[in-house]
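REQUEST ID: PR-0412
SUBMITTED BY: lab tech R.K.
PRIORITY: routine
TASK: structure prediction, single protein chain
INPUT:
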Amino acid sequence: MTHAMPAAYPMPRAPDLRILRGMKLRLPLVALALVLLVACTGLPGPSANSPTLPPASDPSATTDAEPSERPTQSAPPAVAWAPASVPASEMNSAMTSVVPGGDGLVAVGFDGAFGSIVWTSTDGSAWRDVTPDGFQSYGLVSTIELADSTLLAVGRGDTINVEAESAAGFRSEDGLIWFQVDGGANMRGQILDVVEDGGGILIAVGGVPGGDSAGFWRSTDAGETWQRSGADIPQAFLWAVTEGGPGFVAVGWRRTPTPSAAVWTSTDGVTWEAAADPEGFSGFEGIDVVAAPNGTLVMAGGLVAGGEGRIWTSTNGVDWSIAEVEGGLMKAGIRSLVVTPIGLVGVGHRNMDGAAWLSTDDGASWAPLGEPLPDAYFTNAFPADDGLIIVGGTQTGTLETGIDGRAAVWLTTLGD
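STATUS: complete
OUTPUT:
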């Protein structure tokens, strides 16, 4: 082979579950990094089969309004995290994405070893395991519903033989039967996120063979076939992509020469340009990005070394400002951002607890959403009609006694 896979794919960390960037990537793949990230794309709107969620308690006291012309940040509602009924799963497993599909909802995650698990639910409150045979060696980390109502899951192929250096993409009409897409030589590396534009073009981002290199993929046939797009970006990595700004915006990190959060923009998904590093990028990485209802781009990220999260906003994908977060994000971070009927929600962690934050002013300011959930971490969320379905995992124990983590799903109601 001309290139070897990077000896250390960049991996974010949980506060105590450290996955060192210097270790050889064998079994965890980046799916494990995402599973253990207790630090996008715009998620689809509410499903027709939305669950009945637990009632929320009375809204908390209001906070001081922002003295600006932007929408005023209102007080977040108080919420309760209600656990769903889920299948038994192996230690170190976790769900990483949830989308509408099949009979209602489909969740995809990490099985705790080398592969992926797939669950389905009619309403989000009870789930069943429908993992296909053969998924034990595929690491699927991100799933979206396409415009034709089919599902596309992306990640890494052949997680056991890492020398294969293969990315993976699977399509499904019902969440039960999955077909691997044809990528040929173009599907080398690992795909971490994918977005579909209004014209049926798919853009994906991730890591490619070479020394810590980032790359782009493009599909014009609903993900059936893929081509590499643009040039490889050396000494960099891409975590997420969304439609917005001049066309598409991708976020991650690059060395300049030390690690720094980085953003790339494109008008067509073919040619990409790096944005200049603004205030607050040094030492951080961008982990997810989404477009708010008013078009504002919102990026969540954290220190490459771990320990602090951060949120930025931009009107064009090039110029970024640090958002205000009530209570800050020390020992906290946001893994995923999602648009909901009451505003933007970010889910992730605070210390060793699952946590969420809400913005009602298009990402300019944020406040905690409910109390953190002990012994849990949130990786993604889906907006139901009157609340959220949150996926991730539980985590109990310590490094000294051993960590026991299992895939999990929670439901909560969001008030008006």
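NOTES: The two ends are 56 Å apart (CA to CA).
REVIEWED BY: pending
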